[in-house]
Amino acid sequence: MKKALIILLSILSYTTLFAQSSQEIKILEFIEQKGDGFNIAYDKRDTTTYKLLLGEYLSLYKQLSTDQKKKESTTIANIYYNLTCIYSLLNNKASAITCLKKAIEVGYNDYRHIQEDSDLDNIRNEKHFLALNEQLKNTGDYISILKKAGNYNFSENRPLPDFIYQSSSDSNLIFLRNKYNLDSIAGNGTDVLKIINLLRWVHKIIPHNGTNGNPDIKNAASMIDVCKQADRGLNCRGLAIVLNECYLALGLKSRIVTCLPKDSLKIDPDCHVINAVYSKSLEKWLWMDPTFSAFVMNEKGDLLSIEEVRERLINSKPLLLNPDANWNNQTIQKRENYLDNYMAKNLYMLECPVSSEYNMETATNGKVYTYVKLLPLDYHEQMPDKVEEKGKKSGSSWVTYKTNNPNIFWKKPE
Q1: How many alpha carbons lie under 13 Å from residue 371 in its C-beta half-sphere?
Q2: What is the distance of C-alpha 13 from the center of its chain?
Q3: In the chain, fewer beta carbons within 10 Å around the N or the C end?
Q4: What's the burial of 265, exposed, middle or buried (CB within 10 Å: 0-12/13-18/19+)?
């Protein structure tokens, strides 16, 4: 089973770069022009053509810097993985094992896919396959990794700044509220219905596009207008910022939450950004994901918080995804892929801006951007308590506080 479209993977990795070297452009052009040849060779079980394409790709790949190779790790890992599948289907066990080993060495980490892929059935009981599979389990079995990260320190009291939520009386939020008639969009129902209606509205008017960065001006009004005028989308962070400001404009306390993997191999640049919005009627934070128009419930249909979803994944408790959860109104999301795989990977640790406000992540010279990160006790980098990085040209600072106490991190808003 082909792991993924190689062209798409390369575009996703390269468009995250601020600038592309000539070598990066060459390898991207190669993938765009010849990437489909890998898929054709896979379908024909044509190892000769596949290896010729691999040789061309490697000649370009070897000229990349170490950092550039990391960004290309998903593509090269999947190239080797798909060659593994061809050799296994041809019952060439030794070559299949060799290619699988290379795939893992360059960053292949999808443990779950390997367990389900029938292409590998011919090598599944081989001694070397079992050893590689066990090795992969330690870095790619996301549910198992998350289960090991279940412990927090509820008595910890490291000094942290208080979370701040901008008042809906702010002039920018009033402008946003009136410009898009957010009261009408939210409706006259309960706060929960308003929260869901705004989620679905943002998901509907702005497509997700992970291959583009977000506009320089990162506030809801500006980004909505830019997306409409340029017929473009936003990545998950941009969508969460738009939804966050819409919630704030209606007086709903909300945060953007960056959901991060453990990434012990330092090869996974992926994370996912969603929203936590506080429902006064339920007296709890609620999971809202504008990328997939998704929220999560227990077996009774009760809406859950991010922390409750995380705890239920760890303890194998029932979870339900709203049936209309989807990507860009094209691909329906299922619990197995969205929660058990993608979000299980990205719920290892969480990070929020201290101040939830309009225009909070637009680059401004000299500005201090402050975040709090919630770490499980299992994480290897617990110290220092506070990390500060300063931009040499902009004079801006990025400050991150750390905590192991979810009660402080998820404190009820004032």
Answers
A1: 19
A2: 13
A3: C
A4: middle
Structural tokens at position 268: 């996974």
Show the CA angle centred on residue 50, arms to residues 44 and 55, nearest 5°.
Answer: 175
CB atoms within 10 A of CB 239: 29
Instruction: Give exposure, 117-150, as e/b (b: 16+ Cβ within 10 Å).
Output: bebbebbeebeebeebbeebeebbbbbebbeebe
Q: What is the pLDDT of residues 118-175, one digit of tens each?
A: 999 999 999 999 999 999 998 889 999 999 999 999 999 999 999 999 999 999 999 9
Taking the CA atoms of 51, 57, 59 and 65 in sequence, report the sign of the dihedral they define. Answer: negative
CA distance 132 to 114: 11
Whether residue 384 has a cis bond before it, omega within 30° of 0: yes
State the DSSP H helix or E strand holding residue 197, giving kind and residue range, or none if neither: helix 191-205
Give the position of tokens 């946003």.
176
Count how many Cα atoms sit within 13 Å of the Cα of residue 264 in the half-sphere of its side chain: 16
**Nearby residues of 310 by Cβ (< 8 Å), 6 or more positions away:** 146, 347
120: DSSP letter: G
Structure token pair of residue 160? 């942290």
Compute the distance between CA of residue 257 and CA of residue 373 in angstroms, rounded to an integer: 10
* Complete domains list, the chain, with CATH: 6-140 (1.25.40), 147-201+245-409 (no CATH)
Q: CA torsion sign, 122 to 124 to 125 to 129?
A: positive
What is d(CA 171, CA 351) in angstroms, rounded to the nearest whole number?
Answer: 27
The model's pLDDT over 226-242, given as tens digits with 9 standing for 90+, comes to: 999 999 999 999 999 99
Beta bridge partners of residue 321, listed in sequence order: 296
Give DSSP secondary structure letters for 230-273: HT--B-HHHHHHHHHHHHHHTT--EEEEEEE---TTS-----EE
Provide the sign of the torsion angle of the four alpha carbons 360, 361, 365, 366, taken in this order: positive
